[in-house]
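> forwarded from #structure-qc
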C-alpha cells in the first residue's frame, strides 16, 4: 500500500514511520523542509520525501496520484497562542485539495477526545479539523486520543520535569481535572490497526488507557513508579497565564505550548467508548506500565522521537538550508584549532556534546546562560538531546539546532536558538591532517549585537579554550 504520511517529522510521525516500513508499505513523507526530516540514511533510502507547506495555497502535481491511504498528523498548537485554530483549519482544507486528485481510499486522523460539553480552544480546533476532513472524497477514520505517555512526548516530559525537580508542589486547581492517558505504543498500534480496515471507515473512535486519573494522581503515580514520594497542594488563585509561566520555567515546554496546554487541562478528557479496541483486539497498557515502557526506552537510548526536536520547540522558522552556509563577512568569530592523535575518540566526544554530557568546560556557565535565556523567553537548556550519541540534522541540542551532522566528513554545525541580538553558529570539524577546528561565529544585529559579543569575549576565552582542550584530550586507561 502506498501511504502519504503528513507530519512525518513530528513526535507521532517519527514513531509511526518505522512501523509502516516494517509492514512493507511504500511511504511518501511530507515536510515543509526536507532537511528537517531527522532519519538515518537507511530509512531515507526507503522513503520518498516531498516538501509541502499545508498553510500555503496547494500546488499542482506535488502529491503522487497513486496514493492509497494517508495519515493526517498535522497540528499547530505549539506554533501560536492566538490563531492556531485557523491555521489547523487551513491545513485540513488544503490537505483535502491535495488528495482530491489522487486515488486515495482512506485517511487516518489522530485527534483528541472531545466528549466534554465545554471544549478548550485546542480540542475544539481538533473537532473542527475532523469536520473538515469528513468533507473529503475518501473514507475517514478518526482516532481521538487521551494524553499520550511515552519517552519524548510533551505530556510525559512535563510530568517528568515536575516530579523530578519539585518533590513539593503548590499547583493550580486544574491538577484535579480527570483525564485518561494512553501509552504511545498503544497509539501506534491503533494507528496501524485501522489502516485498510473497512470496519473503521467514516467513524470516530476514542482511544485511551484503562486508568481514569486526575493530573495530581498522575504526578503521584509517576513518583511511585520512580521510587520516591512527592507532596502536592492545590490553590485556586493561580490564573491560566500564571500557570503557563509556572510550566514554562519549571519544565522544558515552550511558553506557547504551555499556554495552550493549560487551557486544555481545565477540560475532562475521558473516553466514552471502547469500540475500537474491541474491533482490533487491543488491550491498552496501564498508566504505570506506560511510564515503565518510557523509561526502558530512555535507559537503552532507544528514544525514537521527541517533541523537543520539532522546530516549534524553538525559535527557528526558516529553512535549515538557508543557514548551513556560515557567513564570512560582517561577522565576529572565535576560532581555535588543535592537532589531535585520536580522531575517532574525539569525533565520538563531539557527537555526544550537550544534554547529560554537557559542554566539556564550564558547564555551570552554560547553565547560567540557559537560565538567563529562559528568563528572556528563550528555550534555555532544558530541551537537552533526544539521543545520547546520535545526531541528525534538524535535532534540537540544548539551545542549539543541528544544521549539519556528517560523521563521514567529521563535521558538526549548530545554529543558536537562544535569544540573541544576532545569529550564532558553532562548528566542529576534523580535517584530513587530524586537526580539530572549533569555530564560533556571530553575525551581530546592529550596535547592540556588537556590544553583546564584546561583553562576553572574556568568557569565550575560557569556555571555548577549555572546551576544545577537553574534547581533544587523550584519555588513557
Amino acid at each position: 500500500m502506498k501511504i502519504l504520511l503528513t507530519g512525518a517529522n513530528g513526535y507521532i510521525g517519527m514513531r509511526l514511520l518505522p512501523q509502516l516500513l516494517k509492514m512493507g508499505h511504500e511511504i511518501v513523507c511530507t515536510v515543509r523542509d526536507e532537511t528537517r526530516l531527522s532519519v538515518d540514511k537507511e530509512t531515507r533510502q526507503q522513503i520518498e520525501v516531498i516538501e509541502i507547506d499545508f498553510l500555503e495555497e496547494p500546488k499542482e502535481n506535488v502529491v503522487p496520484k497513486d496514493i492509497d491511504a494517508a495519515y493526517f498528523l498535522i497540528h499547530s498548537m505549539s506554533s501560536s497562542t492566538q490563531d492556531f485554530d485557523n491555521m489547523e483549519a487551513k491545513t485540513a482544507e488544503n490537505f483535502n485539495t491535495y488528495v482530491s486528485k489522487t486515488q486515495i481510499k482512506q485517511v487516518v486522523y489522530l485527534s483528541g477526545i472531545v466528549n466534554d460539553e465545554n471544549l478548550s480552544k485546542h480540542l475544539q480546533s481538533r473537532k473542527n479539523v475532523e469536520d473538515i476532513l469528513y468533507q473529503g472524497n475518501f473514507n475517514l477514520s478518526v482516532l481521538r486520543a487521551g494524553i499520550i505517555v511515552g519517552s519524548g512526548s510533551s505530556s510525559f516530559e512535563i510530568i517528568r520535569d515536575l516530579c523530578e525537580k519539585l518533590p513539593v508542589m503548590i499547583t493550580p486547581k486544574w491538577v484535579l481535572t480527570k483525564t485518561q492517558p494512553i501509552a504511545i505504543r498503544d497509539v501506534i498500534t491503533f494507528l496501524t490497526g485501522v489502516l485498510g480496515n473497512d470496519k473503521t471507515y467514516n467513524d470516530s473512535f476514542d482511544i485511551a488507557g484503562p486508568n481514569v486519573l486526575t493530573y495530581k494522581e498522575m504526578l503521584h503515580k509517576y513518583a511511585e513508579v520512580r521510587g520516591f514520594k512527592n507532596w502536592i497542594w492545590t490553590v485556586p488563585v493561580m490564573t491560566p497565564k500564571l500557570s503557563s509561566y509556572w510550566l514554562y520555567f519549571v519544565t522544558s515546554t515552550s511558553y506557547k505550548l504551555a499556554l495552550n496546554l493549560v487551557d486544555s487541562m481545565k477540560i475532562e478528557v475521558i473516553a466514552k467508548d471502547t469500540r475500537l479496541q474491541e474491533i482490533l483486539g487491543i488491550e491498552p497498557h496501564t498508566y504505570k506500565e506506560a511510564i515503565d515502557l518510557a523509561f526502558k526506552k530512555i535507559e537503552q537510548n532507544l528514544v525514537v522521537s521527541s517533541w523537543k526536536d520539532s522546530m516549534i520547540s524553538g525559535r527557528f522558522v526558516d529553512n535549515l538550508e538557508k543557514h548551513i552556509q556560515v557567513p564570512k563577512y560582517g561577522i565576529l568569530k572565535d576560532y581555535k584549532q588543535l592537532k589531535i592523535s585520536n580522531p575517532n575518540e574525539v569525533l565520538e566526544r563531539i557527537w555526544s556534546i550537550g544534554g547529560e554530557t554537557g559542554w566539556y568546560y564550564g558547564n555551570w556557565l552554560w547553565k547560567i546562560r540557559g537560565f538567563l535565556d529562559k528568563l528572556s523567553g528563550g528555550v534555555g537548556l532544558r530541551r537537552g538531546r533526544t539521543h545520547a550519541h546520535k545526531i541528525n540534522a534538524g535535532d534540537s541540542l540544548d539551545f542549539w539546532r543541528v544544521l549539519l551532522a556528517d560523521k563521514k566528513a567529521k563535521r558538526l554545525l549548530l545554529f543558536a536558538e537562544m535569544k540573541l541580538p544576532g545569529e550564532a553558529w558553532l562548528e566542529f570539524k576534523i580535517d584530513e591532517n587530524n586537526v580539530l577546528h572549533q569555530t564560533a561565529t556571530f553575525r551581530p544585529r546592529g550596535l547592540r549585537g556588537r556590544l553583546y559579543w564584546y561583553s562576553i569575549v572574556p568568557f569565550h576565552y575560557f569556555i571555548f579554550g577549555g572546551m576544545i582542550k577537553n574534547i581533544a584530550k587523550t584519555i588513557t586507561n
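QC bot note: The two ends are 53 Å apart (CA to CA). The CA atoms of residues 31 and 51 lie 5 Å apart.
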